Amino acid sequence: KFVSTVKVVSESDLEAAVNDGNYSVAFYPFKAKSSFAGEIIEGFDQNNIFGYESDVLSQKIRNIKNNSGSLEGERSAVADAENYLVSEAVIMPVFYENSYFVTSKKTSGIYFYSSADNVCFINAKKS
Questions:
Q1: Average pLDDT for residues 83-96, to the nearest whole number?
Q2: Residues with Cβ < 8 Å from 44, sequence gap 6 or more?
Q3: How far apart are the C-alpha atoms of 10 and 2, rounded to whole Å?
Q4: Any idea what DSSP says for residue 90?
Q5: Residues 57, 63, 64: CA angle, nearest 5 degrees
Q6: What is the pLDDT of residues 48-75, one digit of tens each?
Q7: How far is 14 from 116, CA to CA, in rounded Å?
Q8: Residues in CB range of 60: below 8 A, 6 or more apart
Q9: Handedness of CA 78, 79, 84, 86 (dihedral sign)
Q10: Range from 27-36, 101-110, 114-123 that averages highest in pLDDT
Q11: What is the pLDDT at residue 98?
Q12: Where are the domains of the chain?
């Protein structure tokens, strides 16, 4: 049985909860500080606030950096890394290109639609 409470919090409270690992699901805002295409993905590299670690992702990030200067190479490397993050259920895009749906590793069965107002917890489970 999965029981959850949806709670709207300030940005500072959200940051504190994520830093403490005190969440099951977080609609966490990611904002790029530059025009570098791989910047958001780098946020999931080693020692990130979500505690996610993957040697595979680290290699994909190195591949992005190695392809800087080649528009097609960088685009392909970023797409590969993004697909990896989605396939591992580390991030789930919520709004096109600017927001992501993030869940704990222990959470499954949560479905989202085109806005934060349409999240379905009916099949949600926490292991």
A1: 75
A2: 50, 52, 54, 57, 85, 90, 91
A3: 25
A4: S
A5: 95
A6: 777 788 999 999 999 999 998 888 999 9
A7: 15
A8: 41, 77, 80, 81, 84
A9: positive
A10: 101-110
A11: 52
A12: 11-126
Q: Which residue, 42, 48, 47, 49, is CA-closest to 81?
A: 42
pLDDT of 97 reads 47
Residue 45: C-alpha distances to residues 30, 51, 79, 107 (Å): 14, 9, 16, 21
Q: What does the DSSP assignment read for 6-49? A: -----HHHHHHHHHHT--SEEEEE---SSS-TTHHHHTTSTT-T
CA Rg value for the chain = 15
Specify the pLDDT at position 86.
86
Q: What's the CA gap between 8 and 114, in Å, rounded? A: 18
Q: Which residues pair with 102 in a beta bridge?
A: 26
Contact 63, 76 (CB under 8 A): no
Tell me which of 9-18, 44-53, 63-72, 96-105 is least confident. Answer: 96-105
- Across the range 9-34, mean pLDDT stands at 81
